[in-house]
Automatic annotation (TrEMBL):
Phylogenetic lineage: Eukaryota, Metazoa, Chordata, Craniata, Vertebrata
Coiled-coil residue windows: none
Gene name of the encoded protein: Tctn1
Domain Tectonic-1-3 N-terminal: 10-122
InterPro entries: TCTN1-3 (IPR040354), TCTN1-3_dom (IPR011677), TCTN1-3_N (IPR057724)
Highest taxon in the source lineage: Eukaryota
Keyword Magnesium among record annotations: no
Stored Pfam families: DUF1619_N, TCTN_DUF1619
A cellular component term, taken from the record's GO annotations: MKS complex
Protein name per its UniProtKB record: TECT1 protein
Residue stretches making up the Tectonic-1-3 domain: 158-318, 328-515
Recorded family membership: Belongs to the tectonic family.
Length: 543
């Protein structure tokens, strides 16, 4: 009947709306109270942070994908703006599937029911309900079909966040460490994205080494890691390598790591005892663990030893990224190498950068002989914040050819493969195009020097690199950021010289760092000057 159909439609229209606010959801927000790089929905990021982003790692955020009509938060970057800025839009999406939820009318599934507060009146009732070894956490008002699948927990997270303990099927990933004393404690959990390295002392007994769990490889790999917290998806810990250490400290890498080596007693020695474990965790940009590996150092323990020192380390790497040594996080640290790289050939637009062999900007390294022709290939890394100068001497004779000499000197100054780009931050990733600063190359010609060649010959005599950097971020903890790099090649023209004459020309390389940060404006007025003369014995008996 028409009245029944109208009443049904009215109940659907009055159904409670979903409480999920997609504008508040952010699956790439991994760091607590810190801005995640390229996470456009991170509430901890400011407009200055967005101006440094290269792309939005999560451009679309939706709530319940099973709803027929759903809100969606769209994030993008306007790279044409100066500086680049983030664009946020909230749109309505229509689910094309015919099997979708039109309205969510189960009210108790949308809200967290406040727990009942114990009072003198209901204490006995709560004790009977929750005082046993097990109890049901489901509210009495839930009337669920026992054959139906249980709904997921409301507080279940779908990703790891920074510092959250890495969960395993039985507890958490152990990273033994000293707590109060130097003795090992196995109760230390490994935090997600927290690189750690610990050393501690373990009490051992050769007679009982086979029964000491902490000396066995199984103790560190027998529990699978949960891909995301509170999930059923497991990631097994594989054995990456096994190194055997002898009693005198010599280490040997085993060719095969497929066979587990368990501790055992042999000739009054405890062999295959774990001396060190190095975990390597691979994760996605959304906080999901997809791989785990462990490298072991096994050794022998003599009968006289009452304790051994164990070392443990854990590191995290995001998938599809090449692990390279960093020079800061995020800003450069004074004394660490300036990172450099090349743009791939054949790309219609800058898509990524390939690092050179050492991922560093280098200059000519001075040698004891000061001979330029012998110094070819000797390079020294450019260290951030350190002004450097190096050089050599070139003896020019009449037998030297112009073009080979010029090319040799250019290789001495620039190296075999001079980079095209420099990382603006110490932790810039190769795929973040806007985080790389192009090196501007200039050429300057000097006066002429006499030589035997009939035609003028130009040879490079110096390379000057100027690195301009600025302090980025808050005044409390400013981060060093490179904004411009200029490499200037100075050439000299050689001309005719009387026969039999020789000339020695100095060849130099230099690096200069220039701070172009604008001075900070104080947020307070200058304190007034008080002109007071203290008594001569005011600080007596101190000078």
């Amino acid at each position: 009947p028409a009245d029944t159909r109208d009443a049904t439609q009215e109940r659907v229209r009055s159904a409670p709306a979903p409480v999920t606010d997609v504008a508040r959801l952010c699956v790439c927000d991994l760091l607590v109270a810190q801005c995640d790089v390229n996470c456009c929905c991170d509430p901890d990021c400011s407009a200055e942070d967005f101006s440094l982003f290269t792309a939005c790692s999560v451009p679309l955020v939706i709530g319940d994908s099973q709803l027929c009509s759903q809100k969606a938060a769209v994030y993008s970057l306007d790279v044409e703006a100066n500086p680049p800025e983030r664009i946020f839009k909230l749109i309505d999406r229509v689910n094309p599937s015919i099997f979708c939820i039109h309205a969510t009318n189960y009210k108790e599934a949308l809200y967290l029911k406040s727990p009942e507060i114990p009072t003198p009146e209901n204490f006995d009732q709560l004790l009977d309900k929750f005082g046993g070894a097990t109890f049901s956490a489901e509210p009495d008002s839930w009337n669920l079909d026992t054959d139906a699948e249980n709904p997921p927990e409301a507080n279940e997270t779908s990703r790891y966040e920074y510092g959250v303990p890495v969960q395993t099927e039985d507890a958490f990933l152990r990273l033994p460490s000293p707590v109060v004393t130097s003795w090992c404690s196995d109760a230390n959990p490994a935090g997600f994205l927290v690189n750690q390295a610990t050393k501690c002392i373990r009490s051992v007994s050769v007679e009982k080494c086979a029964s000491i769990q902490a000396l066995s490889m199984l103790f560190y790999i027998n529990s699978s890691i949960l891909a995301v917290p509170k999930s059923s998806q497991m990631v097994n810990i594989t054995v990456q390598s096994i190194v055997v250490q002898s009693l005198n400290g010599m280490r040997t890498l085993l060719s095969s790591s497929d066979v587990l080596r368990l501790p055992m007693v042999l000739d009054e020695l405890c062999i295959n005892a774990v001396l060190g474990v190095n975990y390597h965790i691979t994760h996605t940009d959304t906080g999901e663990i997809i791989g785990a590996a462990a490298a072991f150092v096994l050794g022998a323990i003599s009968k006289e030893a009452l304790s051994i020192e164990q070392s443990f380390e854990i590191s995290f790497t995001q998938e599809n990224t090449q692990p390279v040594p960093l020079s800061g996080n995020p800003g450069y640290v004074v004394g660490l190498p300036v990172r450099a790289g090349f743009q791939p050939q054949g790309y219609p637009f800058p898509a990524a950068f390939l690092s050179n062999k050492h991922s560093q900007l280098t200059i000519l390294q001075s040698t004891s002989t000061q001979d330029c022709l012998a110094a070819q290939g000797a390079r020294a890394p450019v260290l951030f914040g350190y002004n450097m100068i190096s050089g050599c001497k070139l003896r020019i004779t009449a037998a030297m050819k112009c073009q080979p000499l010029a090319q040799t000197l250019l290789d001495v100054l620039k190296g075999q493969s001079f980079p095209e780009y420099v990382a603006s931050f110490g932790n810039s990733q190769a795929q973040d195009v806007l985080d790389w600063v192009p090196i501007t190359q200039l050429h300057i010609s000097e006066q002429m020097i006499s030589h035997t060649w009939q035609c003028p010959c130009q040879i490079p005599v110096s390379l000057g690199i100027e690195v301009k950097w600025t302090k980025y971020g808050s005044l409390v903890n400013p981060q060093a950021r490179i904004v411009n790099v200029t490499a200037t090649i100075t050439t000299t023209t050689l001309k005719q010289l009387p026969s039999g004459r020789e000339r020695i020309i100095p060849i130099t390389s230099s690096v200069v760092f220039t701070d172009i940060s604008s001075p900070a404006e104080p947020s307070y007025k200058a304190w007034p000057t008080i002109n007071i003369k203290l008594p001569f014995d005011f600080f007596y008996p101190f000078v």
